[in-house]
Design a protein that fits this description.
Blueprint: H1 2-27, H2 30-39, H3 45-60, H4 63-81, H5 85-95, H6 105-113, H7 118-144
């Protein structure tokens, strides 16, 4: 059991730390602040949701934690603007894959499994995840014109 836990301990610490950070943001009233901040904004709620999630993803590293945190932070924006919750969920999903880099376990798994250098992983994997996230956002914005 010790050997198995050693292999996943760092990932568990990263996810646990990210989850704790999420709770600090929620308990500290950041969700209400963000809702109030963007309630008077002319920026699309879809872009706001994507941007918040992408920023959390880059800072926290975990897609799961970024998604959960962003969902709690933008909930008040959805209520205030009447935005389509389905499109907001899609935007959060797209933002959660943005710019995978060194603070995410997936980055290191790709690097090691494919025998890439750090630079090669940034140039391939981080670029790919960024393109996927931006493409997802653009697709959602196009669909929002028809829904």
């Amino acid at each position: 059991m010790t050997e198995a836990v050693k292999q996943i301990a760092m990932m568990l610490l990263i996810i646990g730390g990210g989850g704790a950070f999420r709770q600090v943001l929620v308990d500290g009233g950041v969700s209400k602040f963000i809702g109030d901040l963007f309630s008077q904004s002319n920026i699309s709620p879809i872009i706001i949701a994507w941007l918040i999630t992408a920023l959390l993803r880059v800072s926290l590293g975990s897609s799961t934690v970024a998604s959960i945190t962003a969902a709690s932070l933008v909930a008040s924006i959805v209520k205030n603007t009447g935005a389509d919750p389905v499109l907001i969920v899609l935007a959060i999903g797209a933002g959660s894959v943005f710019a995978d880099h060194v603070n995410d376990a997936g980055f290191w798994m790709i690097k090691e499994y494919f025998g890439l250098s750090l630079k090669e992983t940034f140039l391939s994997w981080t670029t790919l995840t960024s393109v996927i996230a931006v493409s997802g956002l653009l697709s959602i914005l196009v669909v929002s014109n028809f829904v």
